[in-house]
Write the structure tokens for this entry.
Amino acid sequence: GKMIELIEATIRLITDKVTTVDTVFFHGRAEGDDVGLFELVSKLHHDGFIRHPVLINGSESGTLEPGGTVHSYPGVAAYRRHLEELNVHTAVVSPGLNTLEENFAFLAAAKIRGWRSAIIVAQPHQLLRIFLGALRVMEKENYLMALYAVCPSQVDWLREVYGSQGQKFIPRYGHVAEEYKRIEKYQAAGDLASTDELLQYLNKTRVFL
């Protein structure tokens, strides 16, 4: 049933096998929720898995509260600086205010450069929604890429972090249910590929690994 498909898709993405790719789609995360992701990208780069600069969201820092505190995306300057400190080169794509806009921007940037493969880097519970969105955008833009998924192998699930758009400061495990609710909502709206489409995509593209 549908639940088994979601479980299978999640497990396959968080244990995905990767190969050398053109770039990384590095989606912006809420403040504190990007722990471990920069080091992950750095390791992929230094292990020779990335041919070209890593693509990052061109948005400035996100949601500001009255005290001037940023709770969503820390901003392009912070991401670029952090990656450059790890000797990872970046290329900035058009600003995206949410994951859907980021997926369109990343794909457009890859298309204009003729890049055909990328690794999506995110926390384990976010990979499925991001990947489903990327598949839908590839279909809409008629530009097929070989996409792979990478997440940290160890995560502090008790750490309190901000969730999507800087909302809800709760232990990370509390965001898992939120992610799956959003998958259901966005699939119904047509913004995400179906879980079955994803499984078919993995079956076709992982044959050669």
About this structure: Residues 22 and 115 are 6 Å apart (CA to CA). The chain is about 45% helix and 10% strand. The beta strands are 23-26, 54-56, 90-92, 117-121, 146-150, 160-162, 169-171. The helical segments are 2-14, 37-46, 76-85, 99-113, 127-141, 174-188, 195-205.
